Amino acid sequence: xxxxxxxxxxxxxxxxxxxxxxxxxxxxxxxxxxxxxxxxxxxxxxxxxxxxxxxxxxxxxxxxxxxxxxxxxxxxxxxxxxxxxxxxxxxxxxxxxxxxxxxxxxxxxxxxxxxxxxxxxxxxxxxxxxxxxxxxxxxxxxxxxxxxxxxxxxxxxxxxxxxxxxxxxxxxxxxxxxxxxxxxxxxxxxxxxxxxxxxxxxxxxxxxxxxxxxxxxxxxxxxxxxxxxxxxxxxxxxxxxxxxxxxxxxxxxxxxxxxxxxxxxxxxxxxxxxxxxxxxxxxxxxxxxxxxxxxxxxxxxxxxxxxxxxxxxxxxxxxxxxxxxxxxxxxxxxxxxxxxxxxxxxxxxxxx
Length: 352
Prior knowledge:
There is one protein chain. By secondary structure, the protein is of the alpha+beta class. The protein is built from 14 helices and 12 strands. The protein has helices at 4-16, 23-37, 67-75, 82-85, 105-110, 112-117, 154-180, 204-210, 217-225, 283-290, 296-306, 311-318, 322-336, 341-349, and strands at residues 42-49, 54-56, 61-63, 96-98, 125-133, 136-145, 189-193, 199-202, 231-235, 238-249, 256-257, 269-278. The strands form 2 sheets. Strands 1, 2, 3, 4, 5, 6 and 11 form a 7-stranded antiparallel beta sheet that branches. Strands 8-7-12-10-9 form a 5-stranded antiparallel beta sheet. A hairpin with a 2-residue loop joins strand 9 and strand 10. The longest helix has 27 residues, at 154-180. Residues 252-265 have low confidence and may be disordered.
């Protein structure tokens, strides 16, 4: 039985979300409060597509968890997850569950799932909440704890169940509102390619970016991601931070978590994920520029360069010659003691 204080905190949390309609703002507010209430280290919402019968990457929201890890989970490790292979995640039953409902902690420690995935999150225990509306699954909220924070117990399970009861209608409203305003899904572009840079999957953002690249766009984006450090790429649709990482997948349809009972007989595919994250000069970068010792003009050149502008584009924007841009960059390199454009971008973006 929950204490009066716990129930009051849950109701206060739900009340604080009233009036928030945009999906990212909703999850940000929810997870910041939930982090304190459940003493968690990270939280993620993974949406469920009823038409495809699958969990998906697009539309997710991650709090203190890298999107790259979530992508690995969706494309490969999900079939090893007790919440998935048990059938609980998509089946009937309680709306909240913990690992120990399906496997002992001792057995979990021995699994590939723990050794090769959970240990890197890092994640020691997990409480998953099924978000249902009128009997339909909208997605799951996974709440994580690191080693040293203890395991989830019955108190946390009851909080999750009360939260589910009071939050489901609000979450359905938020998801529906985003769909009606054509803003559902992640703003992150996702491109999956094989070892020969042949596209295997791309979402709407990635397709839009590739449409702005004239020749072999998948290979071009992969090359940008492989330049090292923090790479930025500018298109007619804005600037993007580009990163890539290798994955293994056993999904027939990429970026969809199919519920399966085992992995036997499934062919493992080697592939690469290229993530395109919308990028603008953040307040952190602006502050770094202001205290860098660079002149105002030099700060403007760096700001453009960080966003992926070429020398020619910077010259056009600032109404100066390309040679003047090169002269500015030479002086900037000397002042900041960096050797090239990549190191210059890293200087201002690695902590942004």
